[in-house]
Amino acid sequence: MWAIIITIVMAIIIGIIGDALVGHEMPGGILGAMIAGFVGAWVGAWLFGDWGPHLGNFAVIPAILGTAIFVFLLGLISRLFTRST
């Protein structure tokens, strides 16, 4: 039970940090930050491997980097759709 709670909290924290690094406003608030944290952790592990400190089943540094990349790409896509309409 505690592992699930720690994983969700870490996903939210990683999502907020990744959003702050890129400077975009992540839509969805806490839920959006949690989803970005989970997707970013997956992207970071896929791109950078599984190194650094682990908290809540996340390799923290690759997860933050992956979340920053994910949020940056979301920002680019949202700007493309905003300008085209």
TrEMBL record:
Subcellular location field: Cell membrane
Record's keyword terms, sorted: Cell membrane, Membrane, Transmembrane, Transmembrane helix
Coiled coil: none
Record field: transmembrane: 6-23, 30-49, 55-77
Membrane topology according to the record: Multi-pass membrane protein
Main location: membrane
Keyword check for Secreted: no
Stated family: Belongs to the UPF0410 family.
Alphabetized PANTHER family for the sequence: UPF0410 PROTEIN YMGE
Name of the protein in its database record: GlsB/YeaQ/YmgE family stress response membrane protein
Organism: Paenibacillus dokdonensis
